[in-house]
Amino acid sequence: MAYAAVLAGLAGQPTPSLVGERVSGPSFDGVIVAFTGKSGKGESAAELWMPTAADVRQLEAALPAYAVPQLKRFGVTKRLGDYKRQYVGFVKGGQREIVVQFYHRTTDLVKSGKWLWQIVSVAGGGDDYLRAWYSVDKKRFTDFSVNAPE
Hints:
Blueprint: H1 3-10, E1 19-25, E2 28-33, E3 37-39, E4 46-49, H2 53-73, E5 83-92, E6 95-104, H3 108-112, E7 129-135, E8 140-146
Parallel strand pairs: 2-5
Antiparallel strand pairs: 1-2, 3-4, 4-5, 5-6, 6-7, 7-8
């Protein structure tokens, strides 16, 4: 399933209920996206669910050990804590997953606050935009990506 296509389909949908909950900790700041139900059509359709703050804390506790080597592998020198996050829940193969979208603090999306109220799917932009997939049920990350260069 192409989760990027599903996220792109949700992109640009401003809604007051987008932010289910603002979550933060010593090394992260993010929002849980409050979409639930079905999204998309055909092969890009996905069942959405709303992660809890506890799900996000579990993910964030595991993130540094997983992401730091990934950042090095992709040649990213920016600190993980300098990215704001959106957490979107999907059901994949009957398993609950969270896609984390990362937006670097220097981007217009973050400076304008747009990341707080609208899902944003960005093409290009390089390491200002990252994405990670986390299986809540398996308690592990399954994928990581950096946007293509500008």
